[in-house]
Structure formats: structure tokens, C-alpha cells
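User: I'll paste a sequence; please echo it back and then give the predicted structure.

Assistant: Echoing your sequence first, then the prediction.
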Amino acid sequence: SAASDVYKRQADKFAEDLIPIVRDIRENRITSLGGIAQELNHRHIQTRRGGHWYASSVKNLLVRIADRVGV
């Protein structure tokens, strides 16, 4: 549907905007899902829905990024 297409585009854009941040976190040797979640929360970066990051939400983010451009 048109609404789901809009949601997907918004989610893709949000994920793409986080690529440089995720790269920076990984370059600082933080590579576990939980570690990345902790660092995103420490940097006060909220999820797309305004919540806190968890290992599962980081996993979903990384899958979306990998599907789009790779990281």
C-alpha cells in the first residue's frame, strides 16, 4: 500500500542517516549489538520512534542498512 511504502522510505532514510554514526562506533572497537545500543543511548540518539536502543533494535537497523548500502 502507499502508506507502507512511505513508512519504508522513512525507515530507510533514518537508517541511512545513522550510517556515519554506526561506522564511528565500530571504529572505536564497539562491535557487539548491545555495545552499539549502549553507545547510541549514551550519545542520546533515539530510535526512529523516539525510544531507547536495544540489541534487537540495533540488529534491525544493521539489517536495514546492509540491505540498502552495506556498512
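The longest helix spans residues 2-27. The two ends are 29 Å apart (CA to CA).
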